[in-house]
# Entry
Amino acid sequence: MHETAEVAIIGGGVIGLTIARALALRGVRDVLVIERGSLGTESSFAAAGMLAPQAEANRPHEFFQLTCQSRDLYPALAAALLAETGIDIELETTGTLYLAFTEHDAAELDRRYQWQSEAGLALAKLSGDEARLLEPAVGAEVRAALRFPLDSQVENRRLLSALAVANEQLGVRLDTGTEVASLRVERGRVTGLETSRGFIASGRVVIAAGAWSSLLNAGDIALPNLRIKPVRGQMLCFAAYPRLCSHVIYSPRGYLVPRRDGRLLAGSTSEQAGFEKRVTAAGVHAILSAALEISPRVGALPMIDSWAGLRPRAGDTLPVLGPCAEIEGVFYATGHFRNGILLAPVTGEIIAAAIVDGRFPTRLEIFSPDRFRLLAVTG
Ligand SMILES: Cc1cc2nc3c(=O)[nH]c(=O)nc-3n(C[C@H](O)[C@H](O)[C@H](O)COP(=O)(O)OP(=O)(O)OC[C@H]3O[C@@H](n4cnc5c(N)ncnc54)[C@H](O)[C@@H]3O)c2cc1C
# Structure
């Protein structure tokens, strides 16, 4: 006898956990999350929790629409998780400030302001003085700023705890300390997973294994070559009592994220360092320089923590979402790169709808795993 699951999800990060909850809420009875370590301890734990689609968007691409859609699902998700689990995920809606310190920064901000205001999006242009009036800790050299009132943040570690508890209450099985080695595929259809504690039979499998998604195989059968690579991000954490600022504050070189409990996060780096999750001297230096430029007051704060995580980036940097055409029953939810916390709610909805209703809207095809097959064919 071997174990079975109606849907087996590989990976217990924010993506796997959000999909599991969305499936259980749609009435799928036998959902299994398989996590080789502990739940939510990889990239999802390392993140800053910013929900800021507008702050960095340079054009109205389909990806931008997806990120805004997901951000707008957060208030309902936060309320539902509070009701289901009693855990407040600390959705902060103060807004995000994006600062310009150089002529080049100011030109970038102008372009962003131009297209977003023409598109009717909520944002305001501020002078340097206005930015400092709003956030007095901002450095005197600031030349201009944009304020995005709808871009927000969550405490991603509390989000992970809430998702784990919600899933448990919904009857989702959370199998930690179990590693998936490969998918078993017979006659073009997935039939289950070979794991470190034996075979698990399942006709529906979701690959949500973050930066490790491309390491999975299906024996002799080729999976789509998504070229998911880890992109290391380092983070520093300071104690700021009273709080240094109330907005999430970006510059083109870094960001500061104030938490409710007085922690102040400063990030981050983007490095190709394989699967090494180290905090390095060069990383600390780069983050500190950006943080001190945003606010020289950071220099007086005690540094209380530092960490690194691995963002999952696909070959073309877009997320990989939806059913796999080559192998029936396999669904992808990976490659969320810099936006996995932001994109979690919409990913949960998209994948649950694809599995339960067999629906995958045409507008989402640019995120489909099949795009890599087309690339392979056309060279
Ligand atoms: C420093 C930093 C800052 C970031 N800031 C933000 C931010 O502000 N906003 C935002 O939206 N995003 C941010 N991100 C990105 C975000 O963290 C990721 O996009 C997101 O966490 C990806 O979630 P995931 O569930 O796919 O991956 P993960 O959280 O990495 O989870 C994948 C899980 O799969 C498990 N796994 C892998 N292989 C196997 C296997 N074979 N068998 C069983 N289990 C397996 C892993 O152990 C892991 O727990 C940041 C990332 C970093 C590193």
